[in-house]
Amino acid sequence: MKNIKKYFAQTIVFMIMLIFIFPLIWMFILSTNSQPDVSGFPPPILPGAELVENFQRLTDQIPFFINLWNSIYVGLSNTLLILFVCSLAAYGFARFSQAPGHKWFFYLVMVAIMIPPLAGIVPWFLEMSWFGWLDTHWPLIIPTAAYPFGVFWMYQFIRQAIPEEIYESATLDGASEFRVYWQIVVPLIRPGLAALATLSFLNSWQNFQMPLIVLNSTDRFTIPLALTNLTTLYGNDIPAIMLGTSLSVLPVLAAFMLITRHFISGLTNGAVKS
Amino acid sequence: MTIQKHGSSPVQKNTWRKIKNNKAFYICIAPFMILFLLFSAFPIVSSFFLGFTKWNGAGLPAFAGVDNYVQLFQDPLFLQSIYNTIYMWFFSTLFTLGLAFILAYLVNYYIKKAKGFYRVVFLFPLLVAPALTAIIISVVFSTNSGAVNSVISLLMEGRFTQEWLRSEFWIKPLIVLIIVWRWTGYHFILYIAGLQTIPDELYEAARIDGANPLQMIKNITLPLMLPIILVSSITATVGAIQLFDEPYVLTDGTGGVGNAGLSMGMYLYETAFEYFDFGLAAAQSYVLFAMILAVTLVNARLLRRRT
Question: Testing the interface with B: which of A121, A171, A242, A249 to mutate, by most B Cβ within 10 A?
Answer without folding.
Answer: A121
